Amino acid sequence: MWLSKSSVGRKVVMSVSGIALVLFLLFHMAMNLVAIISPEGYNMICEFLGANWYALVGTAGLAVLVFVHFVYAFILTMQNRKARGSQRYAVSERPKGVSWASQNMLVLGIIVVLGLGLHLFNFWAKMQLPEVLHMLGMHVEYADMGKVADGSYHIAETFKCGVYVALYVVWLAALWFHLTHGFWSAMQTLGVNNGVWYARWKKVGNMFATLVVLGFLAVVVAGATGFIKAPEKACDKKACAIENCSAKKCETPCATEKACAGEKKCDTPCAKKACETPCETEKPCVGC
Q1: Are residues 59 and 194 both part of a single domain?
Q2: % of the chain exceeding 90 in pLDDT
Q3: pTM of the model
Q4: What is the residue-averaged pLDDT of the chain?
Q5: Which among 177, 200, 224 is the end of a domain?
Q6: Are residues 259 and 137 in the same domain?
Q7: Are 80 and 138 found together in one domain?
Q8: What is the per-residue pLDDT across 117-128, written as a single tens digit (0 to 9) for each?
Q9: Residue 180 belongs to what domain range?
Q10: Binning pLDDT at 50, 70 and 90, where does residue 262 land?
């Protein structure tokens, strides 16, 4: 088949899959920025894009696109190296007009894929995956299923770790270089290019890559600085007496100063703002 066997066909597949992934990045970046504006709104989006059939179809489609894009990139790189043979060692300086990113696309691509794996571990594995497993009737060993759609909580929890912040910055830097070259290269492969548009597509690619990366970086910084926080649930705004510690666990800390009159004392005093266990004694929750 022409698309899989010829060099030009492989480049077309690379370009089309790359453009599709670029459009997804733009959507994903815009969605994440909602977390800065409104954590509640962001969580509504996360709930909408949970383990629904359309979200699962989209996730599967993205997985196929990433796989195809990476495999074809690897094949083309190996093909080019084989064609150049020993000549690739003959020149130590980068040819004029050839960007650093174009010479290191495979390495940049590997960093991007590794970063994607980290991102899936931090978010997808804690949000959509538990829902899917639960739907399949499988036992899910997860601390709190109530937080699978709480995207703001996961952003805050992930980026309060400095190691993750550093890794995401490296990932986003690699993504920027990858996008700046890949964008205009795709346009060139698809023929949407000429002497005039060559420089224009490069500028458009640079601006687009900068916009996307800065958008993702803004979310990382907002999470690291505590600007993004999980929105308070209704339980936060109720007194312990209303929550009735003897009947169920308080999943969130006590937010009021009212005494728990008539309530049983929790294992962890309300004064410490951690009513997470049922009551055992008949004493009121002094200090709540």
Answers
A1: yes
A2: 34
A3: 0.71
A4: 76
A5: 224
A6: no
A7: yes
A8: 999 999 998 888
A9: 2-224
A10: very low
Same domain for 117 and 92, yes or no, is yes
Mean pLDDT of 26-52: 91
On whether both 220 and 257 belong to a single domain, the answer is no
- pLDDT tens-digit readout, 57-83: 999 999 999 999 888 888 887 887 777
Q: In whole angstroms, give the CA distance from residue 288 to residue 259.
A: 5
Please check whether residues 112 and 134 belong to one and the same domain. yes
Note whether 183 and 251 are same-domain residues: no
Q: How many domains are contained in the chain?
A: 2
**Same domain, residue pair 239 and 105:** no
